[in-house]
Amino acid sequence: MARKFITERRPTASRGVQRSLEDRRTPIDVKYSLEEALEIFVQAKEAEGLRPRTIKDYRQHISYLREFLSEECPEVIEDINALTAQIIRAYINYLRKDRRPYEGAEHRKVVEREGLSVNTINMRLRTLKTMCRFWYAEGITGKNAMESVKPVRDDQQKEVRGLTDEEIGKIFNALDDRQFAEWRDKVLMYLMLDTGLRPEEAVSVHISQFDFRSMSVLVPSQIAKNRKEREIPISREVGRMVRELYEEVRQYFGEPDQVFMNAYGDPFTADAFRKRLNRMKVRLKLDELHPHMFRHTFARNYLLNGGDIFTLQKILDHADIKTTRKYVQMSNADVKAQHNKYSPIRKFLRR
Question: Which residues are catalytic?
Answer without folding.
Answer: 198, 225, 292, 295, 318, 327
